[in-house]
Structure formats: structure tokens, C-alpha cells
Design a protein that fits this description.
- By secondary structure, the protein is mostly beta strands.
- It is built from four helices and 34 strands.
- Strands 17-18-22-20-21-30-26-25-29-24 form a ten-stranded mixed beta sheet, with no helix packed on it.
- The termini are far apart.
- 40% of the residues are buried.
Amino acid sequence: MKRLCLFLFFILMLGIDKTWGQYGTGFTGNGYYRVRNLATNRYIYVTDNKDYYDMTRDIEDFQAIQLWKDANRYISDPGSVIYIEKKNSENFDLQAQGTGVHSLTGYYVGVTESAGTYTVSASVTKAGIQVTKYLSDTEQSSSDQGTIGTSGKLNYRKWIVDKIETNHATNYFGIRPTIEADGKFYQPFYAAFPFKVSNPNMHVYYINIVEDKYATMKEIKGEVPAGTPVIIECVSTNPAENRIELLNSSPAEVKGNLLGGVYFCNGNRPAASVDAYTAFDADKMRVLSVVDGQLIITNNADDRLSEIKVVDYSTYEIKKIKCIPANTCYLKSDFDTPAEIPVFVDGQVPDGISNISAEHKSISEGVYSLCGTRLRTANDLQDLPAGLYIVNGKKVMLP
């Protein structure tokens, strides 16, 4: 087995010091780029860090890479962001989603330029014979989704690089919030690149305190380190108004962050590829949600999770698994963490929080199983079987 998939993938995203004219910016220096196919205009996405190539049987697995045409997707998807670093006149390294060509293969890579675009090739030795393969978009329909492979011809082998720029009309990065609470918009976010917000009305937080009755978010002012799970407060639901600037260098790690992050949620993988997704564990995880306009963290919010189908190839059984969505974050918790508690900005916790107003009492009130399922809306244990329950965020043993 060889890690040919990502090896080939990262090769295609190189730009040599040439002007691409109508095709795109080309490589203009170390920085962040998006890559699209010349024939189909579908963009490359890194959707997990697994790949597979068996030289003896010539079996390829390119499911770690997906191709999509939808501009609404790439604007807000960290999987479309590739950092290109020029090592010398012939060699480049590329990183995406917490991995990179050199870290995976030990190689730096080069490309062949042709008429302003690039043909991507890599050679392997099979039975003593050197075989050259060309990475391509193998789907020749007009579909939004394409398939990476090595059988494409002509322009399906050619790729274009566009530099991501904060003020660009279309090739920028913007946050698309999925949560609205009390008239504000939020998005859990996790990406491999450092950044800072471009709009002064945006704010970036991490969770620093979790108590029995509330949790607090502390603001990160200025630059956000690479690989930092955060909650971003946006100004609207429009990514163009929530732009962030991607940074070439990262500041020091944020201390005291109780959030964990997930890069991938890819169900198109063998069951053994556990790094391709992170299954939700109601005992150890809480996700950001909202109840009655109040921002909360909870272990009972299926609408904030992704459901994927995973094939166990040992039995060919298809399993449905609830997972943390790609490029989002969650609160790392334990049995003592309440099932649901409100979240406030640090320093803005209301007075008398221990006696939460009636409209918010339902957030923590009730009886839950250890997996987070609400069994009773009131704190009534009558007629329940013996066992351990969570009542108002506290463990209770019923004999």
C-alpha cells in the first residue's frame, strides 16, 4: 500500500511562477489557494486524511478527495483551502485539513506546466515496470459533483489554482452561521489555518468555564491560532459579511479551551477508517444549540449532528452513526457535566443565575439517561427502574 491518493492530490495544486491569465492567479507566493478542474470547473475538497493504493492489485481509493461545483459550498468550507509552500525552485509542500503531502509521504512534489494550466502525474513501479498516472476529474457530465481518478483525458487532467483573498469578489472565505440566538448568529468552527475576523462586529470565543448552572465563552481578540476550536459570532447569515482573513503564521496556542474540534465527517469510507469521522458520544460531548432564544450546550440536539452511513466490510452491514459535523467543535465533557446548560459571554452572566428564570428552567430540568435521552420533563423518578440517571445536571442513583 502507498499513500498515492493524497500524494497525487497535493501535486495538482502547485502553481509555478507563471501568470495564468484568464485561468486564475496561479502561484503568487506562499499562501492559501483553491483548485478547480479546467474542463468541469469543479473544486477540490479534502474530506478526510485516509487514502489507499495497492500496487500489487492496482486498487485505488480516492474517496478522501471530493469534487464540487457549488460556489456556495466552497466559500465556507475549510476543505477547499490549500496552503501552498514553495521549498525551492522545483519542490513544494502543501497542507490541508491538518495534514500535508510531506508529512504523509516524506516527499516534496513538482508539476508539469502546459499552456497555463497543469497536468498532474505521479509514477509508481508495478512488477518492475514504471507506470505513470494522471490525476483527473473522471466525471464528464454536467453534474455538480465529480469523481477523482486517473482515467480522465485532455482538459479533465488540467487544473487551475486561484489565490484566496479577503476582498475578492468570489474567492474569499466567509463564515456561514447555523445558529441564531437572541438576534445574534453563531457558528461552531474548527480549521487548520490561523485567521482573524475582517468585520469588527464579529467575535471569536472559546468555552473556558463550565459550572452546574451555566458555561461561559471567553473572547479571542486579534489572531486565532491554527487548529483552535471556537464559536464565531457573525453579523448575519451572509458569508460575504462574515469574512475572515487567513494568516500565513500562527500565534501561540490558546490556554484553557474546553472545546474539541473535528476536521472530517466522511461516511464514504471503510468502517476501519475511524479518523474519517467522529461519532457523537452523549456521555463525553456537548454541542452548541439554542432553546427559547438562549444559547446552550447540550447532549440532546440531533439537529446539530450529522448522520452518516458506514459500511462494515467485515460483515457488509450498513450502520447509521450520529457524528460531529465536519469543521465544527464540541464541548469535551464527562458524567458531571449537565445535560443542558445556558452559555453566556464571560463577564455577562446574569445575576441570580442559580435561580434561572422560568423560561430557561426547562434547559436543565428533567430526568435523563446517561446517553442524554430525556426520560421525564419534570424531576420525577417515580416508577423508573433502578439505575443511574441525570437529574438537573446531577447524577442520581435510583436503588
